[in-house]
Amino acid sequence: MTDAAELRRRTQELLAAHPPGETERLDFLKARFDAGLAWVHYPEGLGGLGAPRRLQAVVDAELAAAGAPDNDPRRIGIGLGMAAPTILGFGTEEQKRRFLRPLWVGEEVWCQLFSEPGAGSDLAALGTRAVRTDGEGGDWVVNGQKVWTSSAHLARWAILIARTDPDVPKHRGITYFICDMTDPGVDVRPLRQITGEAEFNEVFLTDVRIPDAHRLGEVGDGWKVAQTTLMNERVSIGGMRIPREGGMIGPVAKTWRERPELRTHDTHQRLLRLWVESEVARLSGERLRQQLALGQPGHEGAGMKLGFARLNQEISGLEVELLGEEGLLYEDWTMRRPELVDFTGRDAGYRYLRSKGNSIEGGTSEVLLNIVAERVLGLPSEPRTDKDVAWKDLAR
Amino acid sequence: MEGPRPMSQVSTEPDLLYTEEEEALRAAVRDLLTDRCAAADVITRSESATPYDPELWKALAAGMGLAGLLVPEDRGGQGATHREAAVVLEELGRAVAPVPYLTSAVVATEALLACEGPAADELLAALASGRTVGVLAVALNIGPGAAHRAVRLENGSLHGELTGIADAAAADVLLVPAEDGGLYAVDADAVTVVPQVSLDQTRPLARITFEAAQARPLTTDAAGAVRRALRAGAGLLASEQLGIAEHSLTETVRYLKERKQFNRPVGGFQALKHRLAQVWLEVVGVRAAARNAADALATADADGYVAVAVAQAYAAPVAVHAAEEALQLHGGIGMTWEHPAHLYLKRAKADSIAYGTAGAHREALAELVDLQAP
């Protein structure tokens, strides 16, 4: 059993063999991966040691104290948070060895080709087709369009779900692939948003050839594999401890304190109300974190995103109004393609517009309310007319 | 003397969960209430001459020793904390139990804990034993730090009138602020207590008339004792509100799974599901805020005033919302006297005024966290 002391010893060994000051950043990260200290709960040889997940904190603290470089999880967040656990869960040995190391060190950026213009919240209705050439074991040819793809313009690889059998009900005819973003059939176009930025992309797939060796899981099992990806997307909530005024309320409270000339009675009432709600949301997150630490996962995580989306929108809306004449202005409409998404960055107008996405991205608030109602409260689902109908016969 | 500190820091991390002992306590209280506090009986009792249930009080307060939770063992109590008292209040809220727990075992007890001397000690032990019910004679709507009324002191006797005193009709002894700035103990049979017709029939108010009532001095600093008492009352009221909200949600979900209309369970309609999911989200928030307030009171955290104000500003409207949704989503039956939904709505609405409204607590926060009014 690998315990905290053992991990500390291994970490010190790594630091001794590769002193951070004298080692190239990428070389250090590769050595760290090979020492099993990348994600300690992963198996040996794949960046881990099969240790309990919570012990990662021990390694991270030692490395941070020694000034070791980090692998910039924000830039490679999709790879780390979504592609890696899916590859670990469903990939072949060959796939795991090929993809996990460059993913973790950040040499290869990943993106996710799930959403489509014609299938938003009803993700399983997707229409991108993958057709196999020359029978069993042959390449797949993919055609279709994906949307809302963060990092597609930076990505080397993508996780992709596509329809391989239109004659069965929608959840059953989907297969999961790893797509090479350098394939000549992949066309990435920036998708400009209301903020003026192009944080996401549209991705057009025209006769993209994917070898069968880049299939993840069985043919027709893609929905099941995708559940792992999506669950891991939601697990990331609640892990971080935030201080009071750590969220969107922070900049507004600061403005309030520093600029008394902006204060009105109406905005005061709204600010106090939102301050209380922000504090309660923070405490709810803290309570969830304490439950998770004790191994008592609650359902509260499902609700956190709903709360933050509404709060972000209301607070940023108040902020623009509070600023008066300044609120009528906007910092910069130049189209840019940011590498990182920063909800609270830039000015009030940006925050107001960007937060509109918070109740849409990663599951709309309406879908999340259904999840709470059905999985937490146990209420019946709406009657469904799509369950036993072949995908090709569904209304679109 | 402790007092509010501006812009308090979040010092240590509060423990927002329940311990195993707290869960065991909850189970014991819930069992007792399931047996002895059925909603139908509470409704019947609320119309009788004795809205309180003395047998239930005896079982809770003396039998289980819950009246003395906040009192140290060497002063005759159980030596527990606000965390345990909060769990008891969650269950009492869930049952809208007609017992003077919050007023006697929390508010009056806290007032006495701020006093010194044999008279206060003796009374504290009597309250902790559960054999004596004490009530602080401050109107229920007054929040911590707000101005309250006092009666005239003449030659060691009290003269005057106070109204809006919760649970006064159940009290054996009253803790009364007088105009000289002191707090006095007065036996209930030395005054005239006239019940007022109250919105919340399970925690009724009364008018108290003092006509040369004999008074025993408890402390010369009534303001400090009252502030401490009302702060604990407001903080722990959030746990009662959590119980009310949670019960309202649970019952409504249960009903909507059973009730069929348009050939399917009503709970399957998205428009209703989303409303219930919204209430659930709010209940999650109340639980975190209420635990935070209870923990801050238990650990005498410097952040306690903020924790209490946040809990009250948030919990009060949620409990009302949950009770109102329960009534609406039960349809016609929810509007009847025989269905207990009205008990919860009345308690929730009265609680939203008790120990300071949400608005009053937000105003307090404006000072505490430096978000000053224009």
Give the tags.
heterodimer, A: alpha+beta, 8 strands, 39% helix, B: 374 residues, alpha+beta, four-stranded antiparallel β-sheet, 10 strands, 50% helix, globular
Q: How would you describe this structure to a colleague?
A:
Chain A is of the alpha+beta class and about 400 residues long. Chain A is about 40% helix and about 10% strand. Chain A contains eleven helices and eight strands. Chain A has helices spanning about 5-15, 25-35, 55-65, 75-90, 95-105, 220-235, 250-260, 265-295, 300-320, 350-355, 365-375; strands spanning about 110-115, 130, 140-145, 155-165, 175-180, 185-190, 200-210, 215. In chain A, helix 1 (about 5-15) packs parallel to helix 3 (about 55-65), helix 2 packs antiparallel against helix 5 (about 95-105) and helix 4 runs antiparallel to helix 5 (about 95-105). By secondary structure, chain B is of the alpha+beta class. In chain B, strand 9 and strand 10 (about 265) form a beta hairpin. The chains are: A alpha+beta (about 400), B alpha+beta (about 375). Chains A and B meet through helix 7, helix 8, helix 9 and helix 11 of A and helix 7, strand 10, helix 8, helix 9 and helix 11 of B.
Topology:
The complex is a heterodimer of chains A (396) and B (374).
Chain A: H1 4-17, H2 25-34, H3 56-65, H4 77-90, H5 93-105, E1 110-113, E2 129-132, E3 140-146, E4 157-163, E5 174-180, E6 186-191, E7 200-210, E8 215-216, H6 222-235, H7 249-258, H8 265-293, H9 300-322, H10 348-354, H11 365-376
Parallel strand pairs in A: 1-4
Antiparallel strand pairs in A: 2-3, 3-7, 4-5, 5-8, 6-7
Chain B: H1 20-36, H2 39-46, H3 54-63, H4 82-94, H5 101-113, H6 118-129, E1 134-136, E2 152-154, E3 157-166, E4 173-177, E5 183-187, E6 192-195, E7 205-214, E8 216-219, H7 222-258, E9 260-261, E10 264-265, H8 270-298, H9 304-329, H10 341-351, H11 358-368
Parallel strand pairs in B: 1-4
Antiparallel strand pairs in B: 2-3, 3-7, 4-5, 5-8, 6-7, 9-10
Helix pairs in contact in B: 1-4, 4-7, 4-8, 5-6, 5-7, 7-8, 7-9, 7-10, 8-9, 9-10, 9-11
